[in-house]
Every structure is written in C-alpha cells, then in structure tokens.
Write a structure and sequence with these properties.
heterodimer, A: mainly alpha, two-stranded antiparallel ribbon, two-stranded antiparallel sheet, B: alpha/beta, 2 domains, six-stranded parallel beta sheet
Chain lengths: 356, 363
C-alpha cells in the first residue's frame, strides 16, 4: 500500500536534489522523442542553451521575454499569498494594456514624461478593477474566485476583440483589423538595449518584497491568507484586505499589460499577452510566492521559451515538437513539487484483525 | 549536488562540440554568406498558403544551395519581430515575411536592420531595404469562377473568406465575375471567418453556407476545412493556394494556386549578385507565379475547354479580369465599358461587384 503524507521537513539540499533529478529525468525522456525526430539530443539541448544565453543579443532576448512573466508573477503572488486563486492575470493584463492604449491613442502628442506615467496609472486602475470585481464578490458572497477570474479572462479577450475589429480599428489599414500603432511618445525607451520595463520589474520586486515582509498591510495579507478567522479575531477588516490586495494584484498584472503594449508591441492586439498570464501562475508557484525568487525562475522559464524558438529554426523542428519538449520539462518539474511537499512511503500489508 | 553540476558541465561541453560543425555555403560577391529566413503564419502542413510558401523555400534550397531557415505559426503580432530578430541572429540576410498582418512590424525591422533585406508578401508598404511581392491570383480565380459557375445548379455559390482587406475583396470580385461570365444570375454568398488558419472555424463557415443552399464552395483561407465540409455534404468545391485534391477527392474540382519558387530564387540570385533592390513585384499567370490547378474529374463537362480558352486570352494579354463594365452591389457602374480597374484601385478595393451577397464591413 502506498501512503502519502504532507511533509514540512524537506531540507534545501533534499529539495534541490528532487528538483534536479526531475529535470534530468525530463531531459532523458525528451531525448527519446528528439531521437525519433532524427536529431541528436545533445546538440539540441546544447543549442537550446546557446540559443538562450549564447550571445549578448540572445541574453537580451531572454530577458525581454522574462519581463512580463516577472511582473505578472509578482501580481499573482500577492493574490496567492491570500489563498485567493487568481487565474485572471491574463484578463487583467489585457485590461491594463487596454487602459494604457486608450491613453496612448487619445493623447499621442503628449510628452513622454507625462504620457508614460499616465499610461502606467491607467493600466494599474483598469487591471486592478478587473481583479477587484471577482474579489468583491468573493468577499461579499463567497463566490468561487477560480472560476470567476477565469471567466473574466474570456470577457476581457472578447472585449479586446470587439475593440480591435470595431471602434479602435486602424482606418489606415485598408480594412485589416488592427489597432493603430503608438506614437513614439507612448513607447517605453530603451535602457541598455532593452526596453525600460526591466527597471520597472526590478523596482517592483523590491517593493513587493518590502511590502510583504516589512509593512503592516503586507502582514495582514499573510495572516488573512493563513486563516480568515484569525484575521477577524485580530480585528482586521478581512473583506477590505481581500479587495485591496486583489486590486493590487490585478493592478500589477495590468501594469504588465502596459509594459508589453508600450515596450514590445507598440500597439494593442488580442494576442498581447502571449499567454503570460497563465505561464506566470506556474512561475509564481514554482517561486514559492517569494518575490526575490520570482526573477530567477522567470528568467529560466524565458530561457526555455527562447531556446525552444531557437531550436525550431536551427534544427527545423516543428513548432508542436518544440512545445512538447517544453511541456514535458514542465510536467516533470511541476510533478517534482509533489515530492517536495509530500512524503510517499510504502507500507506492508496490514495483517487481518490487527489494529496496526 | 556536485555530481549533478559535473554531469551538467559534461553534457554541455559535449553538446557544444556537436554544434560547432558547419558546412560551406554559397556567398555573395563580397564574400558574405546568404541565408534566407521564411516567416510563416500557419504550420507548413496546412495544405494551403503556408504549404505553398514552404514548397518555394525547398525550391530555393534545391536551386541555389543556400541555407534557409523558417519558423511556422507566427502570430501577426509583435511576436513576428522576435522571430525575425532571432533569424537575423542566426545569420539570415534576407527574410520573407509571408502574411499581410506582418507589414508594420517588417517596416519597423527594416529600419532597425538596414543591412538585412526584407520582402513582405501581399502588403503595400516599402522601404530602402524592404520590398513587397504578390501575384495576380485574380486571374486563376476568375478561371475557377468559370468552373464553379458551370457546376452550380442552384446558382448559389458559397465563399469562405478570411478578412475584409482589398486582397480578399478583390479575389471575391474576380471569382464572382468568373461565375457570372457563365451564369449572369448566379450569386456568391460570402462568410467572414476573421482567421487565416483555423480549420474548424472555416469548415463551420462552409457548412453554414451549405445550409443556405449553396452547392459549390470556394474559399480564401489557408486550410482545406471548407473543402472537407463540401466533401461531407456531397457537393463540390474550389480550393485555394495548393492542390487540395487529396483533402477532398470527391468534392474538389480545381484551385487558383501559387508558385512562389521561381520568384524566391530570383530574389536570392539578385542578393548574391549584389543587384538586389527593393521592388514591388506583382505579376500574373504569364510569369507563372500563379496558376490554375489541373481540373479533376469532379469538374463539369466542357469546363476544361472553356477555361483553356480564357486562359489563352489572359496569357496573350487580350483579356483583363477587371475590364469594364463592372457594376457594384447597388447596380451602379463603377468601371465603365472601355476601361479597366487600375492597379491602384485594385490594391485599395473595398466594394463588391454585383452578384456578391455579403458586406465589406463598415460599408
């Protein structure tokens, strides 16, 4: 018989061994798949690493891909600390991007010094409200936030589709459904070869870390996340804590939308998130919701995506095969989390009639 | 943990030693390697648009021996910039971006990388180092309209179309003119899908048209979804992009198809010779960049002869698909007799000819 029990005694060394083992197992499994495709697994893996970190350009590219993941993961981690399962980052990113785009399209000639902060503020408010709606319902009527936030993603997606095909369609595009590009004033400047989103990401990591560990508000989140009743007995306004925390969580995700729209896309489209809102759920979970760990995990994750793109071109592996590769690695790594958190032991058959 | 690090280093060093072997490649006159990158909007196995470009890429490799790289399923968003940068990072010196929605991003990249040459398919923007290319697919579309017009008994033909852009609108018009050259009372019913590549959605759109009593299905889509809908309902179809006879053997009659290979080879040769210049390439059947796929046994009797007749006139330059008189949907004459639609009018065409049932949005 197999017995599973929760464990809290997993040492850092042990958990590193489990995670490392999972990655090796994943690589071995995928090797067979690569061989079936007719390639040498060593050269494919080597190229993946080379493709992600091989040159300055590639490192920049990897970092560029990690920025939305870092920002969205930070946002999600706040909600998860509260045990509020915010699956709605995707929609919050979209709404944030929409808020930023509204400012960019309405005031294209405003100076960057005014326009960019304005876009940032708009994105935080839009993303925040999008998160606060399910939070209000959860706080007030205990609705299921997982389903609610997930559904809000679809609403946001359809809303963007409407804007792109309707009122915001670029009249200069001869009928092609796209939203006009931003004016140069609305584009985040490059700092050291990478759009300024990386500075925002680093500042956010520090702020969130301080907020969680060194402020009263941050402490309240941990308490209410641990047990709502404890918070209530301690005299906290639990409903208010839930609503403003999720507003912050959604707001940060919204800011991620602004960074992507302004720094990368220079316009808004339905594909703006590239799935960052969902990927960030995984990365923030893998980071154990710790702000300083999030950038590390996100950069590794971005390296996997960037390396995956690289090998597709270098080896002409089909897109679907590269995704299977990424998916398998992810499966093993996430699977290993189970063994970090639970102990699995085999128990010999209990003798008939015996109590133990 | 140390052991793990050791193994990792071992694996990496083996891997890197594997990757460092290269081969000799054709070069330009001043000694630079020519590498061509292809950005595809769908998977190469779509059996349509991207498949046709992929055939062109393979033709380039065979004819010129240069190294080519491609990336499939690239969204018409900022993702395409990442992909192009990545291609340039891997040595690409000329990049073909094969979908309309890439246009503005290609313009951006052309500015960022003045030494790389870009060719953009089906667009209208240009730069010093960015050309565009397309073919007069309207010519074989007109011919396919003849086949459809002869086959349809109900006089109602369904047309599954992607986006309300001039390229698609123009194609629908040419097809309809072809149909009406046989049956002046026929109607072409249009359904928009707002996607280039979505087999299920395109199939559903075709089914909706069949429910409206259309008995021939034509398409401006990248997949064979509409063909399969026709096959399932036991009616007939006209494909697009590539020969789709294998996907719908009992329905498929013919298709206007692309032959990109010679154009791509020509571009590569110009790059190698150092004579490449950004140009706007837009040729028709006489340059063999567009063709009508061979008619199958599903095509109506006599269609082959009729098509051959018009085709000869097109090749001889005596027949213009968009020659007047052409009326629009309201019955107003837009192109008077004795004149023809100019290239500029074709490139910005946003109205349907008489006989089309459907709307160009916003009109």
């Amino acid at each position: 018989m197999i017995k599973m029990s929760a464990r809290t005694d997993c040492s850092a060394k042990e958990s590193a061994a489990i995670r490392g083992g999972a990655i090796i197992l994943a690589l071995v499994t995928v090797s067979f798949f690569i061989m079936i495709l007719g390639h040498n697994p060593f050269s494919v893996y080597g190229s993946m690493i080379e493709g992600a970190f091989g040159t300055v350009y590639r490192i920049t590219e990897t970092l560029r891909k990690s920025i939305p993941l870092i920002v969205a993961s930070l946002g999600i981690s706040l909600a998860f600390r509260l045990k509020f399962w915010n699956i709605g980052a995707e929609g919050q990113i979209m709404m944030g991007a929409m808020g930023a785009t509204f400012c960019a399209l309405t005031f294209p000639d405003l100076s960057s010094w005014l326009l960019l902060p304005m876009m940032g503020a708009a994105s935080i408010i839009c993303g925040g409200i999008w998160g606060a709606i399910p939070a209000y319902f959860r706080a007030k009527w205990r609705t299921n936030e997982t389903i609610f936030t997930l559904m809000m993603n679809y609403v946001a997606l359809k809303w963007l589709t409407y804007l792109q095909y309707g009122p915001w369609k670029d009249p200069a595009a001869l009928g092609f459904p796209k939203i006009p590009g931003f004016s140069p004033n609305a584009v985040l400047p490059n700092v050291f070869g990478l759009h300024a989103g990386w500075i925002i990401a680093i500042v956010l990591v520090i702020i969130i870390h301080l907020f969680i560990n060194h402020t009263q508000r941050g402490y309240e989140i941990s308490v209410v996340g641990g047990s709502e009743n404890t918070g209530r007995y301690a005299g906290m306004n639990v409903k208010a804590v839930i609503i403003y925390t999720i507003f912050l969580s959604g707001g940060i995700c919204g800011l991620c939308g602004m960074i992507e729209a302004s720094g990368v896309n220079r316009t808004l489209s339905v594909g703006i998130t590239m799935g960052a809102g969902y990927t960030a759920i995984i990365t923030s979970w893998l980071s154990s919701l710790k702000a300083p760990v999030i950038p590390v995990v996100c950069v590794l994750f971005a390296a996997m995506i960037q390396g995956g793109t690289f090998i597709q071109m270098a080896f002409q592996i089909p897109q679907s095969a590269a995704q299977i590769l990424q998916g398998t690695i992810l499966f093993f790594v996430l699977g290993s989390e189970f063994f970090v958190r639970y102990r699995v032991s085999f128990i010999k058959n209990i003798k008939a009639g015996g109590e133990k | 943990m140390k052991k793990f690090t050791f193994i990792l280093i071992l694996v990496l060093s083996i891997a890197i030693s594997f990757t460092s072997c290269g081969k000799k490649a054709p070069k330009t006159a001043d000694g630079k390697e020519v590498v061509m990158g292809f950005v595809y909007v769908g998977p190469i196995g779509d059996g349509g648009w991207t498949y046709a470009h992929e055939q062109g890429r393979q033709f380039v490799e065979k004819e010129t021996g240069i190294r080519t790289i491609f990336k499939e399923t690239v969204a018409e968003s900022a993702e395409v910039k990442d992909v192009m940068r990545s291609m340039i990072d891997q040595g690409a010196t000329i990049i073909a971006a094969t979908s309309f929605g890439y246009m503005d991003f290609v313009v951006e990249m052309a500015k960022e990388y003045p030494n790389v040459k870009f060719i953009h398919c089906s667009g209208y923007k240009m730069a010093e180092n960015m050309g565009n290319y397309f073919g007069r697919i309207e010519q074989p579309r007109f011919l396919s309209g003849i086949v459809a017009g002869m086959k349809s008994k109900s006089g109602k033909i369904g047309y599954v179309a992607a986006f309300e852009i001039p390229e698609v609108v123009r194609g629908i018009n040419a097809f309809t003119l072809g149909v009406k050259s046989i049956n002046p009372k026929a109607e072409v019913h249009v359904r928009w899908t707002h996607t280039w590549y979505d087999p299920a959605k395109e199939k559903e759109a075709a089914k909706a048209l069949l429910d409206e009593k259309c008995d021939v299905i034509a398409q401006h889509q990248d997949t064979a979804g509409p063909q399969q809908a026709a096959e399932e309902r036991g009616v007939f179809s006209v494909g697009y992009n590539s020969d789709m006879s294998k996907m719908a053997p009992k329905a498929y009659m013919t298709a206007p198809v692309w032959n990109w290979g010679p154009y791509y080879v020509d571009q590569v040769k110009k790059v190698m010779a150092g004579t490449w210049k950004a140009e706007s390439y837009w040729e028709g059947m006489n340059a063999d960049i567009v063709r009508l796929a061979p008619l199958t046994a599903n095509a109506p009797d006599g269609a082959a002869a009729k098509v051959e007749d018009v085709k000869k006139k097109i090749l001889a330059g005596t027949f213009n698909v968009f020659a007047g008189p052409i009326k629009d949907q309201s019955g107003k004459v837009r192109i008077p007799a004795g004149s023809a639609m100019s290239d500029k009018e074709q490139l910005s065409c946003d109205w349907f000819v008489e006989g089309v049932v459907g709307k160009v949005k916003g009109k």
